Structure formats: structure tokens, C-alpha cells
Amino acid sequence: MIVLGFDTATAATAVALRLADGTTTQARDDPEAGSHPGHATRLLEMARELLEAGGIGWSDVDRLAVGVGPGTFTGLRVGVATARGLAQSLSLELVGISSPEALAFAALAAHPAEAGAPDAVLAVIDARRGEAFAAAYEPGADGAPRELVPASAVAPAQLASVLAGAEQAAGAQRGWLAVGDGAVRFREQLEAAGAFTPPDSSPLHRVSAAAICELGASAAAARPHELVPDYRRRPDAELALTGGGKSS
Q1: Most CB contacts within 10 A, which of 61, 71, 189, 214?
Q2: Residue (of 83, 166, 64, 173) closest to 123 by Cα position
Q3: Are residues 195 and 236 in the same domain?
Q4: Alpha-carbon dihedral of residues 14, 62, 110, 102, nearest 10 degrees?
Q5: Residue 13 shares a structural domain with residue 92
Q6: Contact 75/127 with Cβ under 8 angstroms?
Q7: Is the N-terminal amide bond of 70 cis, ω within 30° of 0?
């Protein structure tokens, strides 16, 4: 199965192509701090470049996999709308993948279980407005992460409570690896709670489109109109209209 996957839940635009033999190529656009994300302008161009490099056309793609968040409102809207449009116009299978789950999948693959190594992952995506989207996972029997605590928007001070809830769900004390741009932003709170956070430059903090492809290859397909972004909270623009917004 040939899978084209992408994620726009963060400021980055990540795209990957998984060929039928399991080999994967990927591309990223990581804007500099303060720069506008290139989701709308770079996504399709990057996908086309990967297809051309792989020597295949759009008609050869079997399935699209897209990260559905939670993450930034505008990024998710662009990514999911693009995936739905491509699936409808090209008659492709379509699957939605949790962006935190993709973070956990890559982190667990990079840190196989061994004595003293972290054996569970807290995926933390910067939710802006001084909050984070946090979800906890442990290795699953089928190779995919098993969710211990579903993603929710929390204040930094609540991250320790998320870890405590995850350990209760796991039924055992875990060694926690915290990954994601939110883990970078809230490193102090996470390390105080006992989670190991890799250096800011670690690739584990970036949502991997290759992980989106791997998870998407075995996920259940959805109808395009059924696939929606997982915002987990009201959009910033809506909150601003009602006076319920917070500064980031």
C-alpha cells in the first residue's frame, strides 16, 4: 500500500510518502520563530515533490493519512480540508491520525524498552494561550501506542496531574519521556514532575509525517465528510468574540 501522510497540527508542515515496500521518504517546512507557517502554500508542493522523487503519480497513491490534532486551529483546518479535497477528487482512502499519537509512536520507536530507559510517553503540543495539549501513552501489544490519558488542553501546572493520572491508568510507575513543542515550552514543569525531556533540538519534538504514514497504513478508513479536526477546545477567534480568550 502506498500512503501519503501529512501533519499541520503545529507550526511545521510535515509530509511523508510510504511506498509499497515500506520505505518512507519525508520532507518538512519548519518556519523560524515568529514566521508565518507555510501550511497553505507549501503542503501540496511538498507532496508533489515527494511523489516526483518517488517516480509515482497521484493515481498511484492508495491512501491519504492526515494528522487531525489537537493543535493550532488554522493549521488543522488547512491540513484536514486539503486531505478531504484530495480524497474526494482522487477517490483515495482517507484516515485521520492523532497528532499526539504520532509523536508517541516515533518516540517509542526511538527508545525501545531497556533497563532504565523511559517506557512511556507524554506527548505535549503547544496549545497557545499559555496551555498545552497533553496525552499519555505506553507501548501497545500491536506496536502502536496505547492511550493512557486522552489529549486535553491543560495549564502548565496541571501537567503533573496528567502524569499522575496516566500512572494510575497504567497500574504501575513509569519512566516518562516528554516530547513535542509543548514539552520544549514547558520543560521546567515537566522535569519537576519527573519526566525526561530531550534537548530542544531533538527530532522527537517534531510531529513525524513518517509516523502518520505508518499508523495510517493500518488504521480504519473514514469517509471524507466524516473526518474532522480534533480541536479539543473552542477556536481562538470564537473565544475572542465572546471575550473568553487568553493571551499566549
Answers
A1: 71
A2: 166
A3: no
A4: 60
A5: yes
A6: no
A7: yes
* Per-position pLDDT tens, the chain of length 248: 999 999 999 999 999 999 999 999 999 999 988 899 999 999 999 999 999 999 999 999 999 999 999 999 999 999 999 999 999 999 999 999 999 999 999 999 987 655 456 789 999 999 999 999 999 999 998 878 999 999 999 999 999 999 999 999 999 889 999 999 999 999 999 999 999 999 999 999 999 999 999 999 999 999 999 999 999 876 554 544 455 554 33
φ, ψ for residue 26 (rounded to 5)?
Answer: -145, 160
231's grid cell: 480541536
**Distance between CA atoms of residues 124 and 159, nearest Å:** 9
Strand partners, 138: 146
64 in Cβ contact with 51 (< 8 Å):
no
Same domain, 28 and 94: yes
Q: 107 in a domain, yes or no?
A: no
* Structural domain includes residue 23: yes
**Is the residue at 248 inside a domain?**
no
**H or E element at residue 9:** none
DSSP string, 148-181: EEEEEEE-GGGHHHHHHHHHHHHTS---EEEESH
